[in-house]
Write a structure and sequence with these properties.
Layout lengths: L2 H26 L4 H23 L5 H24 L5 H19 L4
Helix pairs in contact: 1-2, 1-3, 3-4
Length: 112
């Protein structure tokens, strides 16, 4: 599989996962049962789309896990900022740097 296409699919999957989670979080705080059920249904559909997106391509997901975790972390922080106004603090930045570094090691380290 073309690496650029794989990274694009993983980015879409990470956006669906982080977005679906955000929708479910919004549903938890919705007023009224009908609104809550509707929001939960949308969140479930988005999370289902994530599952299809990440599991449909013919790839070894384990080999792509490093880049996926990195993409998910970055996108989840953006979703958290945009939709919930939560700004990352120093521990999140430092831990995030470790996540990104680990993802790069897993993705690009070639054993000889």
């Amino acid at each position: 599989m073309n690496p650029v296409f794989a990274y694009l699919v993983l980015t879409i999957a990470a956006a669906l996962e982080a977005g679906g989670d955000a929708i479910v979080r919004k549903g938890l705080h919705a007023s009224g049962t009908p609104a809550r059920v509707g929001i939960f249904a949308i969140g479930a559909a988005v999370l289902f789309a994530y599952g299809l997106t990440v599991n449909s391509p013919p790839w070894d997901f384990g080999k792509l896990l490093g880049i996926y975790v990195t993409l998910f972390f970055v996108i989840a922080q953006l979703v958290n900022l945009v939709f919930f106004g939560a700004r990352p603090d120093l521990p999140i930045f430092l831990g995030g740097a470790l996540i990104v570094a680990g993802g790069l090691v897993i993705t690009f380290w070639r054993a000889s």
